[in-house]
Design brief:
- It is a single chain.
- Helices cover 75% and strands 0% of the residues.
- With 273 residues, the protein is mostly helical.
- The protein has one domain.
- The chain is globular.
Length: 273
């Protein structure tokens, strides 16, 4: 897969598949934890007055439904399914601060979960459709430069928010999990260490929102892949599903790189005529 599309049809094709796979991976990762069941989900159910004994039974059902939605998106996307995925990803992110066990940093860190479905809907022209078109299979309308601009904006916001949110874990929350992650690869991690890492992520995220230049997007992509793999080095192979669930942290930088390269090519082509 080339990251340097030179025409709108090329860019359209690449963005379609990057977003489609990103959304599916997020739901596969999240859904797998539901099927396995996860004690960390209990506070989310409690916040909605659902007893623990019922929550344990609901988790596999919710997880299986997440995986089913991912499979359907990979087979043939329908706008209503993508809209459901947007609403569900947004709601599960909102449950973090609502439950009282996790702060608003958790919500912003999950921008890579709920903003990609919105981008996919925009790519598919969903908000200009009739009601019946939400339920039918469809062919995406041709991509134009105005829509590319919207997707560029949403990509930079997504990358910025997920970096800032994750940075808040270290800079303000001082999560023990982060210390464990870095210690798992032999780094002398302590509170001061994750404070510094957290501020690095916050600054990087803010700069990307303001000035989304290509080297910074590549830095964000490499950084997120490496740091999210620490789930596996610290918690074992099963935690690969934590890495897969956060596919938006990698897919959206890839989409941004494609958009920037396309815009750069078009600018150079216009300048040479």
């Amino acid at each position: 897969m080339t990251l340097k599309p030179t025409t709108l049809p090329q860019l359209h094709h690449l963005l379609h598949w990057v977003l489609r796979v990103t959304i599916a991976c997020c739901f596969i990762g999240h859904g797998t934890w539901g099927v396995i069941t996860k004690e960390g989900w209990l506070p989310f159910f409690r916040s909605q007055s659902i007893p623990d004994e019922i929550a344990w039974k609901l988790m596999p059902i919710i997880g299986a439904f997440d995986i089913l939605m991912a499979i359907l998106i990979l087979i043939k996307p329908r706008r209503i399914i993508v809209m459901w995925m947007l609403v569900w990803a947004l709601w599960t992110a909102i449950l973090r601060p609502i439950s009282g066990t996790q702060g608003t940093w958790e919500f912003w860190e999950r921008a890579g979960n709920w903003l990609p479905p919105l981008m996919f809907l925009i790519l598919g022209g969903a908000f200009a459709m009739k009601m019946k078109d939400w339920f039918s299979t469809y062919t995406e309308p041709a991509l134009d430069d105005d829509k590319v601009g919207i997707l560029h904006f949403l990509c930079r916001i997504t990358i910025g928010l997920l970096l800032i949110g994750h940075g808040g874990f270290g800079a303000f929350v001082e999560k023990q999990m982060l210390i464990n992650h870095f210690a798992s690869i032999g780094l002398p991690a302590d509170v001061a260490f994750i404070n510094a890492v957290g501020w690095f992520e916050i600054v990087l995220g803010a700069v990307i929102i303001i000035l989304p230049v290509l080297p910074l997007i590549w830095l964000a992509l490499v950084w997120k892949v490496l740091t999210e793999l620490l789930y596996v080095t610290e918690g074992g192979l099963l935690n690969i599903f934590e890495f897969i669930e956060r596919w938006g942290d990698y897919g959206i930088p890839v989409a941004m790189i494609m958009i920037i390269n396309y815009q750069k090519f078009q600018k150079n082509a216009a300048g040479s005529t």
